[in-house]
Structure formats: structure tokens, C-alpha cells
Amino acid sequence: MAEYNQPISSFSPETNPSKGPLVGAVIIIILLIIGGIYVINSKQGSLDVSPTPTPTPSASEEPTPSLSSSTNLNDVEKDLGSISTADLESSLNDLNGSLGI
Q1: pTM for the full model?
Q2: Which residues contact 52 (CB under 8 A, 6 or more apart)?
Q3: Helix (H, G, I), strand (E, B) or coil at 41
Q4: Which of 55, 64, 60, 49 is nearest to 94 (CA)?
Q5: What is the rounded distance in angstroms from the CA atom of residue 48 to the CA atom of residue 64?
Q6: Confidence (pLDDT) at 27
Q7: In the prediction, which pLDDT does 101 show?
Q8: Is the pLDDT reported for residue 43 higher than 70?
Q9: Between vectors from CA 47 to CA 44 and to CA 48, what angle results, nearest 5°?
Q10: CA distance 89 to 62
Q11: Which DSSP letter does residue 63 get?
């Protein structure tokens, strides 16, 4: 009857517990730390972009005439005729040059 009074336990002090899960968790934590450092360093390099200055209209540019808000075909054609497109090509070339295209 003495054997029935023993506590039931699956862990006996004589056996060594497995260290595999602990080693796996440590490796995963180390990889997460290394990945975090890599992401932080890669984002800091991309933040060094200098802002491009906003182009300001030159004194030679004519102000845009006020356009009507009508959808009548005659009014739209009149608005299109009032817009100057003489130096549009040079403005586009300047824009392409500043964008590096």
C-alpha cells in the first residue's frame, strides 16, 4: 500500500528536460533583433532625400485669364482660345530636365 501514497508526477528529478524549445526561442529572438536593426538602418538611408524646390512663375509668364465655369461648347472653345500655349514646349522640356527624364 505504500506505493499508492506516492504523488503522481510526470517529471522525475533524474531526467533532464529538453533544451530544444529554449534554444529555438533564443535563435528566433536573435533573428528578430537583427532584422529590426536592418530595417531601421535601411529606412534611415532613404530619409536623406533632399526636397526639390517648388518652381515659381517667372516675370515673363502671363497670368492665366479667368475661365468660365460654363459647360457650353462655345464657352469652352472661347476658354481654350484664351490660353497661351506658345512656350508650353520649353516649359515641358524644363520640367523633364528637372525630373531627370
Answers
A1: 0.33
A2: 98
A3: helix
A4: 55
A5: 37
A6: 97
A7: 72
A8: yes
A9: 105
A10: 16
A11: P
Calculate Rg over the CA atoms of the chain: 37
* Torsion of Cα atoms, 55 then 60 then 66 then 67, to 10°: -80
pLDDT of residue 94: 84
- H helices of 1-101, in order, are 20-46, 73-82, 88-99
Which of 40-44, 58-62, 82-86 is predicted least confidently? 58-62
DSSP state of 47: T
What average pLDDT does the chain have?
Answer: 76
Mean pLDDT of all residues in 41-53: 68
Alpha carbon of residue 27 to chain centroid = 30
Kindly state the greatest CA–CA separation across the chain. Answer: 112
* Burial of residue 79 (number of CB atoms within 10 Å: 0-12, 13-18, 19+): middle
